[in-house]
Amino acid sequence: MAKRLRIASALGAVVILVSACSSSTPTPSPATAAPPATAAPATAAPASTAPESAAPASEAPASAAPAALNLPKVPTGYSELDKALGADQPYKGKKVSIQTQWTGGEGEGFAAAIKDFAAATGIAIQVDSIGSSHETVLKTRIEGGSPPDMAALAQPTGVLAYAKEGKVIDLATFMDPAKLKGDFPSTIGLTSVGDHIWSIPTKADVKSMIWYPVKAFAAKGYTVPKTWDELVALADKIVADGSHPFCVSAGGPGTATGWELTDWVEEVLLKTEDPQVTNDWISHKIPFTDPKIKAAFDKVGSLLFKDGYVDGGGQAIVNADLKTVMDPMFNQDTAAPGCWMQKIPVWYGPDFFPDKRTSGTASKYKIGDDGDIGIFPFPTISDTYKGAEGSADSFMVLADRPEVRAFAEFLATPEGLEGWIKSVGVLSPNVHVPAEWYADNYKLKVANAIATGATAIGFDASDLMPPAVGQGSFWTGISDWANANGSNTDSVLQAIDDSWPK
Amino acid sequence: MAVERTQGSGSYGTSRTVLVVSLIGLVLAAIGISILIDKQGGQKLLASVYDLLGNSAGAEALRNGQGDQFFAKLLLVAIALFVGVGGIWLLFTGVSALVERLRPALRDRLLPLVFIAPAVVLLGIYLVYPAVRTIIGSFQDENGAFTLANWASLATPPFLEILRNNVLWLVIGTSGSVGLGLLTAALFDRIRRESLAKIFVFTPLAISLVGATVIWKFVYAWQPASQPQFGLLNAIWTGLPFGFQPIPWATQFPINLPSEMLILIWLQTGFAMVVFSAAIKGVSSEIIEAARLDGANERQLFRKVIVPMIRGTIVTVTTTVAIVTLKIFDIVMSVSGGRNHDDVVAVRMFAEMFQFFNDGRAAALATVLFIAVLPVMIVNLRNFRRQAAM
Fold first, then answer.
1. Which residue among A30, A124, A255 places its CB closest to the CB of B339?
2. Do B94 and A476 touch (CB under 8 A)?
3. Of A50, B61, B183, B198, which one is least surrounded by beta carbons within 10 A?
C-alpha cells in the first residue's frame, strides 16, 4: 500500500513542481500586507475609521441633513465623485486602501476628514498610518507589486521618482487639469511634468513661524520682534537676563536629523534674496558654495551659534531631540523658561508638549496669544523680499478603479479636508477653502496670515532637491556644521555640493 | 555508501488504487493552488462555505471585501500549510517512488539528487537569484542601461569614509569581543562561582541590538553643561573633581565610533566567552599538568598551551563575530542613522535604497558587503571542515 501511495504522490509532485513557481507570487501577499498593520499598533485607534458602523445606523437616507456633513455639493466638477455621492451609492461596499505617515493628532484629523465621505458613499477607507517608517514600507509595497490604492508623501521628489518608474496613475487622465491648476495654483506644479499631474496636494504646512511662551514674555516685558534686528536685540536681552533665547533641534524624528536647521537656512534665504535664488539653488543652477547661499548659512550661524543663544551651542542642537527640545519653555509658570523661541512649522502642537507626552492625556497648555504658547511670524530681514517657507504633503493614486478615483477627487475638493481643518486643524493647499474655516483655530489663523502676507511662498528647498542631498548630505553636512559651531562653513558647503548627483 | 535495496514487490504495473489516489492528490493540489493564486481566494472559499451553511449575508459581506476577513485569511493559511506540507511530502515520496523503479545503477546516482533538489531549487530562488540580480543591478543605471557610475561613486570621499568605518568596526569590534571573551573565559575558569560570573557577561547577548542601543543611549546621553546630566557616563564624568565638560559620546565624531562599537562588544563578549569557556574545559588536564610539571608558569600555560589547543574555536568565533561587524546595521541606525561620520555600508545601502531612490548604488554597496563577507565565510567553512575531519 505504501508503495502505491508513493506512485500517487509521484504524479501529484509534478503538479506541485509546475505550480511552485507561480504560487510563490500570491502567497506572500498576506505577509506583505501584515507589516503596515503591525507596524503601527499605537496608531490603530485613529487609523480605523470604522466606516461600517458610521454609515447606516444614524443617518438613514443619504439626503438627510447634508449641510452638517463635510461633503462637497453635487455637482462637484468631478465625474466619479458625483457618481459616488449619488443616492444609489454605486460604490457601496468597495474598499480603498491608503497609506499615510500621519499618526497621533494628524492621524485623528485625517480620520475626521474622510469619515463623512465613507458614510455617504459606502466606500470603506482602510488607512494604514505607518509613522516614521512610512516611506520604507511604501517603497517595499510599491516595488513588491502590492501597493496601497493611494499613498501620501511629503517630498515631491519621491512622487516624481515613482512616477518615472511608471507606478503612479496620471491624474490628468480622469480629473480636469485646468480645475486642479486653479484650485492648487502654488502646489500642483511641484509634482507635474508636462501635461501629467502625479499627485494631489493635500496638506499644507507653513514653516515661517516662531513659537514662544506668552506669559513669560509678558512678565519680562518682552515684545514680539518684527524684524531680524529686533530679534537679535531681544535675544541679547534674554541672554543678559540670564537665559537662552533659542531652542533648536537637529535630531529626529527618528533619523531625520537636521531638517530644523536646513529650514532656518531656507527661511533666511527667502527673506534676504529673490525667490528665484531659492529656485536656482534647488535646480543646482547655483551651487551650495554660491556667496548668497553661504551668506544665508552665515546669518543663521551668527544667531544660533552665538555664545549663550542656544544652551550648549551647536553640540546641543545636534543632540537635542525634536520631541523634547522645547520642554525648557514650559516651566514658565514656576520659573524663567530655559529657552524662549523655537522655529517650527504649523503642524507642531500639543502632541509634543511635555504633559501630553508623558501622561497621554490632553495637554493643559493652550496655544494662543492669550494662552500659554503663542506663535509669531518669522521676523523680516529685507524690505523687499518677504517670502515665507511652506511645504505640502500630497497623495499619489496607485490603482485606477472608479472608487479610488472618487476618493482622490474628494480629497481635491475643499471639503476633502474640512473635517481635519475643523477638528485638529490643518491648512489646505486648496485656495477655495473659505477663510472662515480657519477662524476658530489660532495657529491656522496665524499660518494663513503669514501665507497671505508673504511676497512669495518658497517650498521647502531640501524637499525639492534630489533625496541624496535634501535628505542626505544636506542633513549630514548641517549637523557637521552645527557640531563645529559654524566654523567650517566653506568645507561643509563644498562637501554638500560635491554630493550632488551628476 | 551504496545501500542495498530490496526490489519493489512486483508493483510495476499501474493499479487502479494508485490511479485514484494520484488523481485525488492532483485535484486537491490544483484546487489549493488555484485558491492561493486568486487574490480573493480565501474570501471566495469562505463565502461559498457560508452559502452552504445558509449564511448568505455573511457570504455577501465577504465577497464585498468586508465581514470575517480574519477567518478568510486563517483559511488561506491553513490551505497554504496543507498544500505546502502536503506538496513537499508528495514531492519527496512521489519522486523517490518514481526513481526507485529505475535500474539500480541509475537509481543510486539519481536518488541523492532527488533529495537535495528542493533545497537547491529554493536556495536558487531565494538566495542565488537575488544575489545575481543584485550584482547585475549594481552595473545598471535607473533606466537599466549598463554603467560603472555606481561603482565609481564608491571611490568618492563620503564612501571611502564609510568603508573606513567598516574596517574599524571589523578590527576593533571583532578583536574587542574575541579578546575580552577569551580573557573572561580564562579568568572565570579559575574562580569559584564561575557560572554566576558567566551569567553576568552572557546576559547581554539575550538583548537585541536595537534594545541594547536604546539602553546605551541613556548611558551616553548628553545635556548642556548648565543642565543636570541624566546620562550615566556624563554624570560620572562631570562628577569627577576635575571640572570636566560633558562629552556627546554618541553624536560627536570621532568619539561616537568607539561608543557604538562598545555596544556590540558588550553584546558579543558573552557569546565569545561561552564558546571559549567550553573549549578551555575541553583541554585535557593531563596536558596542563604536564606543562606545569615542565615548569610552565600560568601565563605561559595560557599562551603556549591553551590558546594553541583551542585555535580552531578561536578562528570560528572570530569569523562569526567578524561577519556580524561587517554587516553591522542596527546599532548605527538606532544611534544616529550614520549622520555623524559614523555611517557604515549596511546603513548607507538602506538609505540609498529607500530614501535616495538610488537602487543601483544600493546594489553596489550590497555587493561590496557580499564580497567582504565572502572570504570570512570561506575561512569559517574550511575551519569547520578541518574540525569535522579531526
1. A255
2. no
3. A50
Q: Which three cell numbers stand for residue A180?
A: 486642479
Which of these, A205, A207, A200, A206, lies nearest to A394 by C-alpha position? A200
How many Cβ atoms from other residues are within 10 Å of residue B217's Cβ?
Answer: 17
Contact across the interface for B339 and A257, Cβ inside 8 Å: yes
- Burial of residue A136 (number of CB atoms within 10 Å: 0-12, 13-18, 19+): middle
Which residue type, as a one-letter code, is found at position B265? I
DSSP B302: I
Domain with CATH 1.10.3720.10 in chain B: 155-389
A98 vs A16 pLDDT, higher one: A98
The helices-and-strands tally (H runs, E runs) of chain A is: 23, 12
Q: Are B211 and B201 in contact (CB under 8 A)?
A: no
On whether the B155-389 domain is CATH 3.40.50.11740, my answer is: no
Domains detected in chain A? 36-205+391-448 (3.40.190.10), 209-390+449-498 (3.40.190.10)
ipTM over 0.85: no
Contacts of B24 in chain A (CB under 8 A): 8
Local confidence band at B80 (pLDDT 50, 70, 90 cut-offs):
confident
> DSSP readout, A7-55?
HHHHHHHHHHHHHHHHHTTTTHHHHHHHHHHHH-GGGHHHH---HHHHS
Instruction: State the pLDDT at residue A307.
Output: 92
- With vertex at residue B267, the alpha carbon angle to CA B176 and CA B223, rounded to the nearest 5 degrees, is 90
Grid cell at residue B295: 615548569
Q: What is the overall mean pLDDT for chain B?
A: 87
